[in-house]
Amino acid sequence: MSTSRTSLTLVQGDITEQSVDAVVNAANSSLMGGGGVDGAIHRRGGPEILDECRDLRASRYGRGLPTGAAVATTAGRLPARWVIHTVGPRFSREEDRSELLASCYRESLKVADALGARTVAFPAVSAGIYGWPMEDAARIAVETVRGTETSVEEVRFVLFDDRAYEAFAAQLG
Length: 173
Description:
Layout lengths: L6 E6 L9 E6 L8 H10 L1 H12 L11 E5 L7 E6 L10 H18 L3 E4 L11 H13 L7 E6 L2 H11 L1
Helix pairs in contact: 3-4, 4-5
């Protein structure tokens, strides 16, 4: 395993349209869908994703998926094989939660490796309704992915708008 063989690419667009092995969902801890990326993945992926999320809640995650953790389900009708759900932290000015955000990327890559995924699409975890400042979210995402040993060959950051794309592009240098 080597991070030097992992290419990092940027795409501006819709993460639900990415033909990759695994799409990372910026999920809420309930795993039952929600707004933003989470809602889009559940809507486009169809009921199969929700069915597997319900099974996870009934078995391993009765209290919900912990912040910073990751777990995989089918991708349903998405053009991917799997969805890796991760729960990002809410931004706080009073408490440094950077390690929890970094954990989302590390744990998602660990799940991807266990699945045998070679291509993974990430959104800007926690940079939407969870309020993480985009520039800092991009820094943590890129530094963490670069510093994590993985067999994943391509990490694709799929960014919804110009501002997010520019923040990630600045981190990739």
